[in-house]
């Protein structure tokens, strides 16, 4: 299989135009760490952004960074850290969960709309993404957005590209808004709560004025024998001291929490971000389920009644990471039925290729939404070159 790795945007456009002329289907990759997400590849060649590297603009005073799509995420984060700044949405690293190698790239973060625990306050990657350049399926270079947030009327290509998983175009450059790194971070840890009580505590914390930036629950057996419930706050040290006291009073009926800071807390939130408790459990299927926080325990209980499963909660209970065995459909019918009753959506993040070929990986769309999706795909990639069938069969 041919591998194309353009060194410039113009070269990428020429490669795509040539592929379109011969109807050559292309697998779009960055660092190759997330290629196992989605339906199995239906491509004939690979188009990699690995040759498009470098930070092309960084204005710390304006809180803006721009980089070529193949730039390693670690390079972007290191540059920001040197100025005490960060990507606010805390992007997940899938390598432990998927057992993949390579280096995550900033373009793939945009393409997958990759976010982490701080999404509850900072939004997703798409909420910080303010500019993109990409090559469409005709080999044309398209630019959308810029260095400042703007209100948008009509089709917002920046938001459209975020979460399209390389199916609409080949990203060449992305621009993000960034934020200062908080002076101090502290995490309250409540022991021994069951799922329902934990979500109640998380919801009460999130509904308070004390600016929770992380809200997760690990049931018993996830990382420790005893269940643990985590609430993170960030900011100036004096503010942290005040908010810790207020949160203890607000949540006193849930027990007396421990406070963790420093590397212990950082390691915990990294594990929440990367779903590493489930990564350590072998080769089972892993689902990413979004629902209303109050309905999270209902969803997990319904699945656990019918199938062996382990799970933990992020986003105050609104995000469930759940592991099942891979037998049959890896629990697809059961998971989707539970989610349909509660409301929400589910993505099969990890499963063997045979399972991903036989069940929907991303949340199935209604017929009107599928027609709209197919129409958008045809408008940007009329020959169906880019990651064909990765998100939905035939699209």
Class computed from helices, strands and strand pairing: alpha+beta
Low-pLDDT parts are 149-154
Total of DSSP H or I helical runs spanning 4+ residues: 15
Order of strands in the sheet with most strands: 4-5-9-7-8
Based on the coordinates given, report the CATH architecture of the largest domain.
2-Layer Sandwich
The CATH topology label of the largest domain is Uridine Diphospho-n-acetylenolpyruvylglucosamine Reductase, domain 3
GO molecular function, one term: catalytic activity
Organism: Methylobacterium nodulans (strain LMG 21967 / CNCM I-2342 / ORS 2060)
Keywords: FAD, Flavoprotein
Protein name: FAD linked oxidase domain protein
Q: What does this protein structure show overall?
A:
The protein has helices at residues 9-21, 73-82, 95-98, 106-111, 119-122, 125-128, 157-161, 195-206, 237-250, 262-274, 276-279, 296-306, 332-342, 353-358, 367-380, and strands spanning 2-4, 26-29, 45-48, 55-59, 64-68, 85-86, 129-135, 141-145, 170-177, 179-180, 184-191, 212-218, 228-235, 258-260, 285-290, 309-314, 319-324, 345-350. The protein has 395 residues and is of the alpha+beta class. The protein has a five-stranded antiparallel sheet. Strand 4 and strand 5 form a beta hairpin.
